Amino acid sequence: MKLLSRTQRPASAFTLVELLVVIAIIGVLVALLLPAVQSAREAARRMSCGANIKQLTLGLLSYHDAHDQFPIGVYGAENDKERKHEDGLGWASRILPQLEAQAIFNNLKNNGIAGYDGNPWKPGIFRAAHAAGRRPLPGGDAELAMFRCPSADLPTHVPDADPILGAGPFATSGYAVSHYKGSRGYCDLGMFWRVQEGLKSGTCYQDITGDGVIDVTVKDPDLRRIRIVDVTDGTSNTIAVGEAAYVPSFEAFPMWLGSWREDGTTLFKTQDPVNCNIGGAGYPLTENDVLRLPGGSGTDDCTFSWHPAGVHFGFVDGSVRFLSEELEVRTFLLLGNRIDGEVIGQLN
Q1: What is the rounded distance in angstroms from the CA atom of residue 202 to the CA atom of residue 199?
Q2: Is 162 exposed, middle or buried (0-12, 13-18, 19+ CB in 10 A)?
């Protein structure tokens, strides 16, 4: 009998059982590693998001240094009976030079629209641009990185038509979407408001001290600008900006440039829970998400992030904090109020 030489012997191979075992081991390793990889990616995105808000708060402080005041939330009409009282550029448009976006600022300012060329911070600019066929305004469609959180997954621009009603295009269709908004606080005692609301007198009722007794605060109708000296609670205790990356209605699609019909496009309030009881990140919101919104589907005043369990906020002093969605609403309300006089303890 002729024996096979070493080189002539059949090559060994995996059996089917061995192959299945190897595949199973690889599957287990992937299952173990994938959450860690996803967690690391989200940590990086979260850090980048916080850096964006830091840039916005520093831009606001730089604007204050140059103009001795913070910008107004929305430059709409003084009379709330006019349709233009919520139609105007927003706070973010004012700080573009401080955000190293001077070219966009110049294009926005020199827009070529009759009545607004050279000074776009007048009421009614979005409707005027739409009517003149100049939508979007020059620069208004720019995707600026400092207004976009890497974790959020919204359209880059306001769509041309409402996906539910099918109508459109609207006065803000084509404008760049933002994932951050400015804080109105509660009862317009925050850092930003519309012109009409800033000039309006009124009385605010809230339990500031937490003793169960309603406290009364009278608004100052002559306060036409907000300066650091007007933040009597301290700049480290007052929210300036935060994440609000959700779409409660087509009219309130979040964008950095301003507001044409609902100031919720660029402003939020601190009167509802952080993350607003929405079950999870998503666009568009599910029917259950809409039902959980305080006040119904039209609620455009909430803060909301795509990060797990909380939201980034930028404070007037330039600091950034990640506040838990479990934060007591009263504490959140006080953080949005610049003049309540209460001392805030350790924040989670």
Answers
A1: 10
A2: middle
